[in-house]
Each structure stands twice: as C-alpha cells, then as structure tokens.
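I'll show a typical protein example:
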Amino acid sequence: MWMFESILLWTLMAAVILSGQARPNMKLNSQSSSGLRSDCVGNLMRLSLDKALAVGNELEVEAVNGTQHIVITARLASQCGYSMESDLSGNTRIYSSLLGCYVDNKDDRIFNVGMRLRIYSNSQSDVVTHDVTQTCSYTPWASREILCDRNYMEVSGFIADAGTKGLAQDVKGNDLPDVSGDAHGIWKLTFYTPEPVAMVLREAEQAGYGLMLTSTRLVVRSPYNTAQTTSEEVGGVSMEVIRVSAYYQTPHGLNVMNMAAACPTGGVLFIDDLISWHIPRRLTPLVDGSFEVLELHMGINGKRLDRSQMATRGYTLSTTHHHIVIEIPVGSPDGHFKSHASDYQYHISYSVEPMLEILWRAKDAKDDIRYKVLFPIKTPLLPQLPHFQESTVPEARMFRCVVGTFLHDVVLKNITFSTGVLTVDATNARGFIIQEHKYANGTKGYSLSVPFDADVVLKHNPELLVTTYLLPLTFGFIILPEETPFAHQVQLQASLQDVELPTIAGTCDEKYFYITVKYGSRGNNFQAMVGHRRLTPEMAEDYQFQENGTHFNVKLPYDAKDAVLELIQTDSLRARVDLSLLDHINNWVLADLYLACTFPFTTTTCYPNGTMTATAVKVQSVPKLVPSRLTLKDQSCKPAFSDDRFARFSFSVDSCGTTRTFFDHYMLYENEIGLHYNKGLYNKGVAKTSPNDPAYRQTISCYYVVNETQTVAATSKQRLYEPKADIGAGQLMVQMRLAQDSAYQLFYQAEDYPVVKYLRQPLYFEVALIESTDPNLELIVEKCWATLDEDRTSLPSWDVIVDGCENPDDIYVTVFHPVVSDSRVLFPSHIKRFSMKMFTFTKEKAVQKDEIYVHCDSVICDTSSRADGSCRGQCVQPTRHSNARQYEGKGAKRARRQTTQQMQTSSGPVELTSG
C-alpha cells in the first residue's frame, strides 16, 4: 500500500541540468514535440513531461484561470483535483480532474484546462515557462461518478432539477470560488463519521474540502485522512470512506443529495514476481442492493487498455465471487524499478500505477455509478545481491571481474583495497582498469582489472613452489538522486606455481669458505641459517656479509664457530659449512648447501732442539669431547692451550712418555694424545683392542735424519663421515630396495647407485615378496648383515638382523617399521621394512673402505600351517640370545634354517661421505 501523503511532489530534483536561458512562452497541444504532451483520459486531463525538461530542475505548476495564475500547492491540489507523479527516469505526469476548481467548464461537456509550468534550473532567475492548454470533451457522465486519485477522493452527482446554469466565479480570498452568497448554491454539508458533523460551505472549504455546483452536477472532493473520513474494511480490503449529505439551493428550493465515496488503500498481494490487486466486487458504502456490472476496464496511468494491449503486457483482469482482481507482472514496461540501500545492502523496488474503471447499475433503479481508481503500487524492497563473475586467467597474471547488474540510478563511487580507499578516477590512474557496461535491458555493471603484482594484492605460499594471490575488494556505490550509499564485498583468489627458489653456491681457498646466495622470485624473504644458528646482523658483520639487491655473499674462515670440523690428517683439516634458507612462516627449506673443503693444516711440528708441538682437533664424530681434558701418554702432560675445539701441546722429546726407536738412518719419537679415562664411546663396526682402549687417540711422531727434521703421519681413531647408500636389485621372487625416506614412497633406482649418505644417517630398507597374490604367504627377514664388498660371504662383516630381530650387541639398534595397506601395498604380510644407521668399517685406526653392502636372508612362510622357527613371525622367539657376528678377520659360519623357501637379497653399495 502506498502512502498518500508522500506521493505528491510538486518540486522535482534530478541529475541533468538544463540551460538557464529564459525562453518564450509556448502554448502546446497534444501533438507538441517539445517534450510536453497533453491528452484526455476519460474524466481526467493528463500532461506528460519528458525527463529532458524536468530532470535536474525545480518544477512549479500554476493553474490558469482566465488572466490569473494560481500556484498549485499540495493542499490546493487535493482540494481542487490535481495530482502529479514522477518515475525513476524523471518522466513526470500531471493529472487534472475535469471537474477541478480552475477548469473552464462548458455545460459539463467541454472542458478547457490551462496550466503554466515554470522550470527553474540554477537559480530563481534562470526560469523557463511553458503554457499548456488542453480541451477535453466528456459526455458519458453517469448519475454518480467517483474518482479515486493518489491524493484525493472525488464524488459528483447529477442534479435532477437543474433549472439554471452553474455560476462561474472569480478567485477570491483563499483562492477558492465563493458561491456561498449566491441565489443558489451549496448551503451546508453534514458528514457522517458515523456521528453527524455539520459544516457550512466556508467551514468545509477551510477544512480542505473542495465543493462545487456546476450546471448539472454537485461535486464534493476530499483529501485522504481527514477528520471526517473513516477507514473501513470492505471485503477484506482497507478503504478510505467519506459519507456526506450536501444541501444546496436552487430557484426551486432547497435540495439535499446524499453522497459517498470509498477508495481503496490496500488489497495488494505480492506473490513471487506477480502483483495481485484486489478490489471488493460489492462496495457496500456505495451500493445497497443488487446491481449489475455494465462495464469493466483496466488501464495504466489513467488510460484504458484494450484486451490485446493487456495480453501483450501480461496483464489480467478477472472477477471472483467477492473481488475484482488485476494481476501485473513485476517488471512490466508500464512501471519502473528504483534502487534502494536498506541496511547498507542493495535492494530494488518496482512501481506501477494501474487504473480500474467500473460502471454498474442498481437493478431496481435507473441510476448508474461510474467508479474509477488510479492506484499507485510499489513492491516491498527486494534484496538484489549483485552478481559477481570472475574471469581471471592466472597465466595472464591479471585479476578480472564483473559486478552487477544494477539499475541505471546506481553509480560506482569508490573501491576499498587492502591498502585503502580509491575513487574511480584514482583507481584508473593507478593502472587498474574500471569500465562501465550498459546492457540492453537498461541495467548496467562494472568490470575491474588488477595485475597480480599490484601492491593491493596480498600473497602467501600454501606450498613451496605455489603462490596464492588474494584481492579483497569492497565496491562502494551510491544511488541517485538521493546519493544513498551501499557496498558489496568480494574476494578474488588465484594460485600459480610461479615461485623461483633461491640458489646457493660456494667455493673455498686455503683459509676461507666463500658462499653466494642468489635471491629467487620472493627476494630476500627468508631466514638464513649458518649451521644451527640464525644469521644475525652481528654474525653478518663477522662473516663480511655483502648484499646488492639480488645476491648476498658471506666469507667464513675454516675454523669459524659455525663451521663443522670433519677430519684431521697430517697436513690438512677437512671442514664443512652448512647454509640453509628457511621460509619465515612454514619453516620450509628453500635451499641448502653443505660445502666441505680440505684446508692446509699442520698437526705436528718437530724442532731441531728436540721440542715437539702437536694440535688435537675436536671433530664432528666426537661431539662430547672436551679438548682441555686431553693428555699425552703421561697424563700429567696437559694442553698448553685449549678452547672448545682445539688443544695444543708443546713438550720435549724426552718427556711426557715419549718413546724413542732407532733405525739405520733416523731416530723416531712417538707419543699419543688421548682421553684415557673415557671408556664409553666406540665406533660401530670397530672391535676394541683392549678394555682400556680410549675413545679418542691421536698418535704423533717425529723422526730425525742427520740434520733434517721431518713430520710423519698422525692419525685419529674416530668416526669421520656421514655415509651414503645404493639400492640392490632383488632376486626373482624377493627384492630389496632402499627408500629415500621413512615414508617408503620413493626408492632409489639402479642409476642412482652408489647412494651417498652421512655417518649415522638412517638407511630405510624394504624387503618385498613380488609377483605373488597369495594372502596366506608371509615374508620373514631372517638375518641381514653388512660387508665391504658385494660378495655376501666376504669379511669383515657386521650383523644387522639376527634370527629375525635386531642385533642386541649393536648400540645403534635396527628399527622395524610397520607396513599397512595402501594404493601400492595390497598384502602387508609380503613386505618387511627396517632402518639402520650408516656406519663404516675401520681397522687399526683407519677406514678400510668408504662404502658398504647390505645382504639379507629371507624365508617365505605359509601362514595357514605355520611351523616353528622363523615362521613364528618377525622377531618372535622363545628366548633371545646374543647372536651378533663380531668384527673378525675370518668371519663366522652362519647356520641356515629349513623353511618353506629361503631367498637371498642384497643392496649396495652405500657410500660414506662427509659433505
């Protein structure tokens, strides 16, 4: 239901400004092409203004009455029969009742309507005037005519005894015709609310009622919602009703006419996209007894439509037992949409002004009644979530989207990015492209393009090589002409595998490590780690850090705190620097470098005066060594200098337990640097020569030939490298493979051997029964051992698995890993997995070889008839015994168990390295 008090707007404001030049007055008719059109629609005259005249200006309407021009105010309009409405586009319609106050009425047959329009643009001095006259002929007057317009109700009745012509009056006093003093005219009125309220003519006019006596008709006009009107429900429809008795004087005496008008203020239903308007079929305030409907018409904007016009537009006019029903689809061409911003969200409404016209006659009387209603309808606000379409092509590195659709009264004002708010002009100036798109149905949308590299785009890396780009947007719109704001938020997202990782390269000279880091696509957005320490500004200064925007360089001495000392020899020291680049957020390793170099280093110096100096080095394989606790053979001879990595001794050849041996041409002096009281450490694969064998022993020697002094070999008994491994191909039915990690998803291939591993680095082996789908078979790894050579029977050897279990004599225990079904493993019983730590064989203080081979004996068991022994299951024994084969020169015989079937597999070589 519309609100009557807000519909009539006599001052119009919109968006387009006309020229301020005054123009000559123009008299127009219905054929005018100046943007003004007037026509007659039944008992109304209609004047239409094109939006080009009205939009952006103030419109003032004057009624022309002879030589006088009366400004039509809202109050005067409802009292004298004028109304006006404008649509969204600015098109304006003005209606005048043919029985209006200022219409030149010729015997209720010919009606001359005059108006003057004043259109103000920038100021009151910039005014354009248009004079409009329209002559209408209307003769099919009914005995009683009721007109319901948007701001007033009008009822007129035929004067049965019209002896004289109605009087034409000049405007007086309050601009209303004064007939109260004439020989005949309206005397008084009695309103029924339902209590009778009597008013003389002037009182009624002052209360806002319009009263007129023409040559043949008595006219009463009332605004809505006055003290003398009532609100009633008729047939379930809200109606505004006025009941009045009008007393009027004629030459033949005083007469009275009982009149009533009932105008609907409700009765509208909105069902999906259909407007359904219901009007009571029996208007009880107007009809008492039975009646028949003579005519029934539907119209739009005051003008009737024929059946073909209605069908084209999808309109229907029907009757039920209680109602007359008009149905109009939302969006029909005779109405218009309007944008709204309710709760800061986009909504639309649809407005249309249907007309209903009925002519009926009481069956027992000759009087007929014409009932005409102009009824503006506006739908409730309809939420209209803007459609958002993204057309981003990640490879083009450009976000593209379209947001819409909107009515043409919506304007994009600004966009809020992650960095702040930008107007449309500022957004385009930044290189982001905003375009407006207009569509054939009168709506529009906006497109936006933003490159991935713009500073308003947020970035993060969900995977190591993948960048996800995020563009959060808030589109800020306004609705004209009110400039009501609303917003729509969206977020665009795209991912690209476009990360270029940083790279690390390094070299060495005789004293220093030189490392260069080249930045990747993310610049220096990483954390550099030197060894186990974060590269801080203090460390960078110590390591001569230099940066140029695309690279950085560091220079580390071989004995830097963050360098790892791996191996000491007679004349050299092997050191390593580990540099890694970590992702700040996910701690991913973006790049790493393990740079190992051999540097010149003198461990023992022999002087002609019989003095010896020797340097012991704490290497990586003995992390718990405290250099200051080292001594010579004579444990009272301690280091002359020591720190956390070095111990330096200086002594004469005839002290500290130094031994002397005579040869033909030289004398040999020997001593030993050791940690004689630490008995807990020993190397895997190394048999101790005695219970008192120290964990650290370094032999130092000097020999003298005539007048020469020479330095001879110095060795240290410690584990030196982190080893490496290869995969061996299995025999026909059983294969043994080396996995790249504990996930057992990726395995080394034949071309990868020899595989290189560090000392104590885990080796992940898998022994599998292949080409068998028998679920009753189970593979049991009976024993595994390591050798220096590919020959399974070669010596030395070391037991890894004994009687299906880990070697109990091994301090680095072999670990069995569970096997579960997955896409690759169909029968977990066909596979066994175990891991061991990389080691090497040493003999008499020397590494025998830098590689090992691993061999396994397996048995295949029938689980449905499992026997004793190995077929009891992996590592299932009644009693555990120490069955480890010790490191020996000749080896030991290995007993073989009788099983269903025994298989042999090997893997290698696995090569030991230090970096």
